[in-house]
Design a protein that fits this description.
The chain is α+β, with helices and mostly antiparallel strands and 331 residues long. The protein has helices at 2-18, 20-30, 64-82, 267-281, 317-329, and strands at 36-38, 44-54, 86-88, 104-108, 114-127, 132-144, 149-159, 165-177, 186-192, 197-208, 215-220, 225-227, 237-239, 244-245, 293-297, 312-316. It is elongated and about 75 Å long.
Amino acid sequence: MKKTFIIFVSVLLLITLFVPLEESKKYAAESSMGGYKIIEQNDIISKIEIINIPSTGVATSLSRTDKNDLIIKARNDLKKETSKDNFVYNTISPGKTPKYVSTNSSKATTSKAPITTVTIKHTTTFDEKNKQIIISTTIKKLIGKKPVIILTGNRLYASNKYRDGYSKVKGYDVEWTGANIKVGKTKRVTYKVKSTKFWTSRGSTTVGVGGSVPISSSSQLDRPVLTNKNAVIYPKIYDSHSKRYMGTPIVANMKTVMKENRVKWTSSERNKYKKAYIEKFSKPKFRWEGKYTEIHHIIPREYGGTNAFGNLFPLPTKLHRLLLNPWWKAY
């Protein structure tokens, strides 16, 4: 009997260890009923480039020398687009808007009617199962005259700070000609995530068609994405009562603070925040008891976070424990 009980407890423990991720996703969908909304965590972020090639009125039949010249020009144009291994990102703070990920179009075109339209899709995939990031480029559409050459590439950049210098950690440039220029043609590479970082990517494409000069286009993710060392994107949560989004940390390499030096979180501090929240936003529908609601520290006390009003965010207890706590354990 005792042996059977031990086996039962062991199985229960294993279930407890492996279920939370699925439970958290399920609870994320249910939590909107309690006044909270989890902004959809799209692990696949895409950018579209639509490149329109206009005719220059030049004869469209190409000699071998003309074709080689066109290819060299296309290569040089792409090199201009891909020469940066570092750049500084400086724009609005993370967590300001609900639009966390999107698919936008970057169009390279002129007023002349195109003889060719090429649609390229650059994709960044955050693969938490394998703790890696995948960047890829795919030819999605080809309309009109077939290009002589498509040069394209995608680069992954990382930083320890949201507003800081980003350095290239992975990337590629690929050259497609002849039979390789076809819808569905794809290039991809993977990068194993080793630590918490802010990530962004940049894709660039140059297309050369007989009878026109090469046309280049480039695209970038709307904003950097924060993941922990397991490649899990930091959650985006909206409180419909206060009409506030939970803030996102802007530093990815915070140091642990010794326990004796961390700010204390007591019932008195909790009550003080509750009072301030009600005064600022009026009385909410959710219940404040710990069984139902916990107060989340956006910057955890473990990493120097304070009890300042702006660093606190009320969350349903279950959501806090299934979604936020596991994310920070892998920080």
